[in-house]
Specification:
160 residues; alpha/beta; 5-stranded parallel beta sheet; 7 helices
């Protein structure tokens, strides 16, 4: 074990929350910008791992530096870079954002619906609408369900 590894402290979500509540921490998220936009810990500063430079990390009196990412792998990598650059102590959120969420603490970000779910909702709605209108207004509306269902079968069979 090297000197640098002795100065890397893994903290849990409860400890991070307590430090944040007391305004004692500079939280740096080293996730990708897309991941950060989707979900992050409120107050975290984004410095993606591919642009991470320990020289740009501010050294603030009275504040601990905590690194975190989605699972904890990239933040461990960034922490080692900081220790090699001369930081005496670096903290790292064990388990990353997943551990933070599992502890029930709040996050911020845009929750987007994935494209597959959106397609399922759209096609299901068309089939439901065609069947409903076909049984109440005109049997011609059933064609909508037939076209959508037939298209799904064709897409599935052709693997496109």
């Amino acid at each position: 074990m090297t000197f640098a590894m002795h100065n890397l402290k893994e903290i849990d979500a409860l400890t991070l929350k307590q430090w944040m509540d007391r305004n004692e921490v500079l939280l740096i998220d080293v996730s990708k910008p897309q991941e950060f936009e989707k979900s992050h810990i409120p107050g975290a500063k984004l410095i993606p791992i591919d642009k991470f430079d320990p020289a740009t990390v501010p050294r603030l009196q009275g504040q601990r530096i905590v690194l975190q990412c989605q699972s904890g792998n990239r933040s461990t990598q960034a922490a080692h870079q900081m220790l090699q650059a001369g930081f005496s102590h670096v903290n790292h959120l064990q388990g990353g954002l997943a551990a933070w969420k599992a502890a029930g603490y709040p996050t911020q970000g845009k929750q987007s619906i994935n494209i597959l779910r959106l397609a399922q909702i759209l096609t299901g709605s068309c089939v439901l609408l065609g069947t409903s209108l076909g049984s109440t207004l005109s049997p011609w509306f059933v064609l909508l369900s037939i076209v959508v269902g037939g298209s799904l079968v064709l897409i599935g069979v052709s693997n496109n």
